[in-house]
Automatic annotation (TrEMBL), chain B:
Keywords: ATP-binding, Nucleotide-binding, Transport
PROSITE patterns according to UniProt: ABC_TRANSPORTER_1, ABC_TRANSPORTER_2
Name of the protein in question: ATP-binding cassette domain-containing protein
PANTHER family registered for this protein in UniProt: ALIPHATIC SULFONATES IMPORT ATP-BINDING PROTEIN SSUB, TAURINE IMPORT ATP-BINDING PROTEIN-RELATED
GO MF entries: ATP binding; ATP hydrolysis activity
InterPro entries on file: AAA+_ATPase (IPR003593), ABC_transporter-like_ATP-bd (IPR003439), ABC_transporter-like_CS (IPR017871), ABC_transporter_ATP-bind (IPR050166), P-loop_NTPase (IPR027417)
Superkingdom classification of source: Bacteria
UniProt organism field: Streptomyces typhae
Annotated CDD domains: ABC_NrtD_SsuB_transporters
Record domain ABC transporter: where: 2-234
Transmembrane segments: none
From TrEMBL, chain C:
Gene3D superfamilies per UniProt: MetI-like (1.10.3720.10)
Stored Pfam families: BPD_transp_1
Endpoints of the signal sequence: none
TM regions (residue ranges): 79-100, 112-133, 139-160, 181-202, 208-225, 237-258
Family: Belongs to the binding-protein-dependent transport system permease family.
GO cellular component labels: plasma membrane
Record carries keyword Transmembrane: yes
Membrane topology per record: Multi-pass membrane protein
Any one of the GO BP annotations: transmembrane transport
Principal subcellular localisation of the protein: membrane
Keywords on record: Cell membrane, Membrane, Transmembrane, Transmembrane helix, Transport
PROSITE patterns (alphabetical): ABC_TM1
Full protein name: ABC transporter permease subunit
High-level lineage: Bacteria, Bacillati, Actinomycetota, Actinomycetes, Kitasatosporales
Length: 351, 270, 274
């Protein structure tokens, strides 16, 4: 069983090898095919169960896949091309936003209708929830809860980065160490950290400390695993090149390994932040009724359903905002991994 | 057999530029003729082939095969792809039988016809292998066998030997000639190799780039069958002459994009 | 293509010393596990902290709980939750993912939301399910689905989208219908990415199962964790945790076995170094 999990990384890696299975340059037509170089170089090697670390997964979102709308159904049409509508309507149909708004409208309407029919104390309507959310934003209670929660988030996440990045890069560089740590890391990746909450509460009590530790536990594995993969996949030719110029281990680290691993490390940090937010909410929901999770439980206990839903919306908003910010930071810091399109094309056609 | 009349097609690049891939292309291919299409890269020869195959729409003009207009892929035409387009998860046998399967041919007949064509292209014993286990040359043999199983009247070959090495390419050329001499069908063969175009074709349609159009049709009066003595064909004066002439024309086309070479004195008479 | 190319051999680390060479020859995983277990036992005995009992105590507790039958019945409950959640996730995930990968407009309509929900802390939806579906199995299954389904959707969509267009075109050239293209070309070609998504989904589903059960706390292993935590029975918590890890590993091994047969054709250019 341990064997199988060590192989998991290999199996997941095959996803990255996917394009090797189709080694032909037609791939240029669809930007989403190959993991755009470096978009998420790493996660493929080590895909933890709780992320979408798959290269193409993330790529699918990073690289805008504005392909020509595939003529769906009935195979391709040949013959003289039918005249297609052009102008504003066409452009509107080619954009994403109208569809997104449509989906939102449909969901909101369904929610409202369902709540109208089946609604009760525990199921507020959409409009009611929106109103309650707006109201919540004006209340000190919410902001205090957010402050308490985010304190744990910031401290725990910082701890995870400070511990995880050095540990991960070391594991990536020193093979022997990595060999022995691997099985433990793989187990940690599948361990539901939430089950550790009772132990934490027993040892450090129901305070900020236990929340900080849990947040750190949630995110550190992701940081380690991605940092490790980042160092591990540095092209050995680059290291040889540096050595041929007389670089020592220190210079290799500073000039080659760390810069080359940076995009992967950033990916780990981004994914780790996502997990940290999860950990923050989780610990408050499950054991330590404080902060924003505690607020959810309070509203549930008071049967204040609109406020309950509003709080959930606030948490989702925070998770998305933090995710977007991390994404932005990742792109800024690892800009060299996004090659300009023309260069990619030549590189691909040479393959 | 194939009539192409005033075919034109343009597309818009990502930067919004409009490019004429084909402009007013007219071409007739006779019954059982082996026509090679030669041109610089980007001249639209592949687009032309895909249009005949019914795989892409076009802007204007008509294509008819045996008098009936092309409106999509049809059982009368089969394509051999440059990059083989084999299903990597399917065995050689399943790959060869793919076309038949799409046409609803029963399992037993599928296997029988596929096996006989696998033998024709010299891949006996590889039926259970996956494409990934084959060399490029062998993969393209699978591609050819797959196209032949559906007994097409027209075989459309899109730079089929472009992705294999020189030696394999020569072997494949000989084998293709042998197969064609035996089975006789209409072939449209895209290539960027002058030697290949002359060695295989009855006529060479020379295309120019941007806009893509037929610049000239050069007849090749080398004797057939050629598969018996490919070496002899390649040593003949006619072969050398046509290849040299094609290169002249192609060099002129390239020179149009190199102004420094454009006013080179026309020293060679053809 | 620079970055994602797999590196065949790792940059050579420290210079080889005889001791290191000897360590290198040992089978790493079992040795490392044994060392970890020994360390746990030693730390547990010396620290004598209530939160970290030695491994032997945990194992004793595990045997005891198994004898009483609490483990078996809870495990069965949990597995049912997991299985139901996974079946729903896979069915919905494959369906929606294929639609998103195949049709741009479906992708435009749903993509943003799927990605958002994938990134969100899934357990916040537990109170919603709780109020909609009541405090029972349905809520737990719903939590499992929220954990697992989105990653399956996203990967399926990515897989379907990345099918080489020349294969689809080839199928069309033989007159394949849209259904034939889907069944004979698109889904097999997308299988490696789909399976990767399923694997991630299974991992997330196990987490969702435990978290959901801890939150709703009526059935399953998660309830055992909560109860043991309430009694300050740390050995009990860890004993259940061992079971959960075993469940996760077993589920992953199962997926892997399926994956190996489904994606046998993918060339093994990258070999495991271990």
């Amino acid at each position: 069983m341990t064997l199988s999990i060590t192989r998991r990384s290999a199996a997941v890696f095959r996803a990255a090898m996917f394009r090797k299975a189709f080694p032909h340059p037609n791939a240029t037509i669809i930007p989403g095919t190959t993991p755009a170089p470096g978009a998420t170089p790493v996660p493929s090697t080590t895909t933890p169960p709780n992320t979408t670390a798959l290269p193409s997964t993330t790529t699918a979102r990073n690289a805008p896949t504005h392909r020509k709308p595939r003529r769906s159904g009935r195979g391709p049409q040949a013959g003289p091309r039918p005249t297609r509508p052009t102008g504003p309507l066409r452009r509107l149909l080619d954009m994403n936003l109208p569809y997104q708004l449509l989906t939102f409208a449909v969901l909101a309407t369904c929610w409202e209708l369902y709540a109208g029919v089946r609604g009760g104390l525990l199921l507020p309507g959409f409009a009611e929830t929106v109103r309650a959310t707006a109201g919540l934003l004006g209340e000190a209670e919410l902001w205090r809860a957010l402050y308490v929660s985010n304190q744990a988030l910031v401290l725990g996440f910082a701890l995870a980065v400070v511990v995880g990045v050095p540990l991960g890069t070391a594991l990536g560089r020193f093979r022997l160490l990595e060999r022995y740590a691997d099985v433990h890391l793989n187990i940690l990746l599948v361990t539901p950290m939430a089950a550790l909450i009772p132990l934490l509460v027993m040892s450090v009590g129901v305070g900020t400390v236990s929340r900080v530790v849990l947040v750190a536990l949630f995110s550190v594995v992701m940081v380690i695993v991605n940092s490790r993969a980042g160092v591990r996949q540095v092209d050995p030719a680059l290291i040889e090149m540096a050595r041929s110029f007389g670089a020592g281990e220190r210079t290799v680290w500073a000039r080659i390994l760390l810069p080359a691993a940076l995009p992967a490390v950033m990916t780990g940090v981004r994914l780790g932040l996502g997990r940290a937010v999860t950990g923050m909410v989780l610990v408050e929901l499950l054991m330590v009724s404080d902060g924003i999770g505690g607020l959810i439980l309070t509203y549930r206990g008071l049967l204040k359903a609109p406020q309950l839903y509003g709080t959930i919306a606030v948490i989702l908003a925070e998770a998305l905002l933090l995710g977007a910010a991390a994404h932005w930071a990742e792109r800024r810091l690892a800009r060299w991994t996004r090659p300009n399109p023309s260069r990619t094309r030549t590189a691909r056609s040479q393959r | 057999m194939i009539t192409i009349q005033g075919l034109s097609k343009s597309f818009t690049t990502r930067s919004g530029e409009r490019v004429d891939a084909l402009r007013d292309v007219s071409l007739d291919v006779g019954e059982n003729e082996f026509l090679t299409v030669l041109g610089p890269s980007g001249c639209g020869k592949t687009t032309l082939l895909r249009a005949v195959a019914g795989l892409v729409p076009w802007d204007g003009g008509d294509i008819a095969v045996d008098g009936s207009p092309v409106r999509g892929p049809g059982p009368d035409r089969a394509v051999v792809f440059q990059n083989f387009a084999l299903l990597p998860w399917a065995t050689v046998l399943d790959n060869v039988a793919f076309g038949l399967r799409m046409r609803g041919v029963g399992r037993a007949e599928r296997a029988e016809r596929a096996r006989s064509l696998i033998a024709t292209v010299g891949l006996e014993g590889c039926e259970a292998k996956l494409p990934g286990e084959l060399s490029g040359g062998m993969q393209q043999r699978v591609g050819i066998a797959r196209a032949l199983t559906v007994r097409p009247r027209v075989l459309l070959m899109d730079e089929p030997f472009g992705a294999v090495d020189e030696q394999t390419r020569r072997l494949l050329q000989e084998e293709l000639l042998a197969i064609w001499e035996e089975h006789r069908m209409t072939v449209v063969f895209i290539t960027h190799s002058m030697e290949e175009a002359v060695l295989l074709g009855d006529r060479v349609a020379l295309m120019s780039a941007r806009p893509g159009r037929i610049a000239e049709i050069v007849p090749v009066r080398l004797p057939r069958p050629r598969s018996r003595d490919v070496g002899g064909v390649a040593r003949s004066g006619e072969y050398a002459e046509i290849t040299a002439y094609l290169w002249e024309r192609l060099r002129d086309m390239h020179a149009e994009h190199r102004p420094d070479r454009a006013h080179r004195p026309d020293e060679v008479a053809s | 293509m620079t970055a994602p190319t797999p590196v065949e051999h790792r940059p050579g680390g420290a210079r080889r010393r005889p001791a290191a060479a000897r360590l290198r020859r040992l089978p790493a995983a079992p040795v490392s596990l044994a060392a970890g277990a020994a360390a746990w036992e030693a730390v547990g005995r010396t620290a004598d902290a209530s939160a970290l009992p030695p491994l032997s105590t945990v194992l004793d507790r595990l045997v005891e709980a198994t004898r009483q039958g609490t483990i078996a019945s809870s495990l069965a409950d949990s597995l049912v939750n997991l299985a139901l959640g996974l079946v729903i996730s896979l069915a919905a995930g494959l369906l929606v993912g294929t639609a998103m990968g195949r049709w741009r407009r479906v992708d435009a309509a749903l993509g943003v939301y799927v990605h958002a929900l994938l990134a969100a802390p899934s357990l916040v939806f537990a109170p919603v399910f709780f109020s909609l579906l009541g405090a029972g199995r349905a809520s737990i299954v719903a939590v499992v689905v929220t954990y697992a389904v989105f990653v399956v959707v996203v990967n399926t969509a990515a897989g379907v989208r990345s099918v080489p267009p020349h294969l689809v075109e080839m199928a069309h050239s033989y007159g394949a219908s849209e259904r034939q293209v889907l069944v004979r070309v698109v889904l097999p070609a997308a299988a490696p990415l789909i399976m990767a998504g399923v694997r991630l989904g299974v991992g997330r589903a196990v987490t969702g199962m435990i978290n959901g059960e801890m939150f709703i706390s009526v059935v399953g292993l998660g309830r055992l964790v909560t109860e043991a935590g309430g009694r300050f029975d740390s050995a009990g918590v860890l004993a259940v945790l061992l079971i959960v890890i075993a469940v996760a590993l077993a589920a992953l091994a199962l997926v892997q076995a399926v994956d190996r047969t489904v994606t046998r054709w993918v060339p093994r250019t990258w070999k495991e170094e271990r």
